[in-house]
Design a protein that fits this description.
The strands form two sheets. A three-stranded mixed sheet has the order 1-4-5. Helix content is 36%, strand content 20%. The protein is α/β, with parallel strands linked by helices. It folds into two domains: 1-64; 67-128, no CATH class. The longest helix is centred in the middle third of the chain and has 34 residues, at 31-64.
Length: 128
């Protein structure tokens, strides 16, 4: 690809290495921008992996302490169901309260949903 091709530059019908219609009319991107974007993506992925590993180790440590309240919490959950009517209004019906166990962590571990996520989703009515 010629070095003079830039983002948004008009395409030509030349037969060079991807500047013409034979290559699908790709618009060249500066290779430095691509490397920076790739490095940023890899850095973000590594940071999320480190955060998950730290959260997992912390959860397992608190679970092994023997005190269940440190890692797992039990919450009382009452679902709300929104039943739409033909006139556009909605009827709200409350379900039976249930006890649900959740993980006191950032990410889900050991089959438990994180408590912060459970609190957020229970507050929203379930659309029927």
């Amino acid at each position: 690809m010629p070095p003079h091709k830039r983002f948004g530059a008009p395409e030509t019908d030349s037969d060079d290495a991807c500047g013409g219609p034979k290559c699908g009319n790709f618009i060249a991107v500066n290779p430095i921008v691509g490397r920076v974007a790739l490095r940023g993506l890899l850095a973000a992925l590594v940071l999320v992996a480190i955060l998950w590993i730290g959260d997992f180790v912390s959860f397992r440590y608190r679970l092994s302490k023997g005190t269940a309240g440190l890692a797992v919490q039990t919450m009382r959950v009452q679902r709300t169901y929104a039943i739409p009517h033909k006139d556009g209004r909605a009827e709200y019906v409350f379900g039976e309260p249930q006890m649900v166990s959740c993980a006191r962590s950032i990410f889900p571990h050991a089959g438990y949903t994180p408590c912060w996520y459970l609190q957020k989703t229970v507050a929203k009515p379930v659309q029927m």
